[in-house]
Predict the structure of Malate/L-lactate dehydrogenase.
Amino acid sequence: MPRELLMSGAPSDEFTTWTTPASATAYLTCKQKSKSGKRAQKEIIMADEHQEQQNLVYVSAQEAQAYAERVLQANGLTPANATTVARGLVAADLRGIDTHGINRLPSYLTRIRQGVLDPSAEPTLHVKTPVAAQIDAHNNFGFIAAAQGIQHACTVAQTYGIGMVSIKHSNHFGMSAHLCQTALDHPSGPMMSLVFTNSSPALPPYGGRSKLLGVSPIACGAPGGPNHPDFILDMAPSVAARGKIYKALRRGEKIPMDWALDATGAPTDDPAKALEEGAVMLPMGGPKGSALAIMMDVFSGVFSGAAFAGGVTGPYDPSRPADVGHFLVCIRPDLFMSRAEFGERMDVLYERVTEGERAKGVERIYMPGELEQITERKRREEGIPFVKGEVEGLDAEARKCGVEGLRVM
């Protein structure tokens, strides 16, 4: 398996299953062509990366946070809620998940201006049992309801060992790993977590042609041992996150041929065609990715009372409220053993995973989330990279509401 697959966690070709005979034929043709031109393709990628490096500017985490707070407050959020949303966006930028960072702000602000996202609403929490609660987000940012939910679940778990919160009438809550990290940083002590959400249609069910299921991330976290980092898994059930296609479109880049099918059912490297009506993204592992997306809809949509079965409105669609659902669980890691023993066992797991015999060409084996932690340390020191066009777009949003734009380093 190539080094980049082991490092990124991306599925290999052996696990890619296609939904229709026509698309399978197109895929095989594409794969045969790609095998013969891998060297040329690599040279193109390297040239694109070099060109992008030449076009980069850097922004400190503090400035990214301050910019986001300025723009959000100017669009109707309270200072506290603006801080919550901005913190979630900047956390994504720091971890290298640029698809969920402050570049999302223009689409969010468009929804506010269109009247389909209420920046002044406050979530309401209803306790159902000692360990379970439900939050109605009242169509404000998902970041706000999810932050309240994960804190409540952690507090309950401190007393009862486990806490869970279901959320309805919400919106996109950003990078799921941020909520896992919030649970790990809880003042009462680090908590294990499960973070589920549903999202707007992007994937067909296995064997289908029409979009129905969301690219809904599956996330979980657990505190690491005394000698190694925390464990955080955050992955979409698709070959790639949908935000990566929007990022490629924004930057004028092509996408890998195995990410999506265009409206004719053929693989495409054009992000615009991958996002047009009738195009679909592809699930990882065929029926397995499809099943995971359905699971997300059961727990986040059906169970919460939010939209489900294709009913969620996309974050880039300003036509009506999204009605996203979330499901959050926090668990005390010393529920079945001492905290010290749990930590020792996590250290053993880390060492067994990362210190085993490596496949050819692999320099290092990483635990899930470890690459993002390394990226965060680097970006806190060097700044968050943006292409100049992205900064121009963010500055345009600042001008619309009369606040200062983004200051680069």
Residues 160 and 169 are 27 Å apart (CA to CA). The chain has two domains: 3-43+121-367, 55-113+368-409.
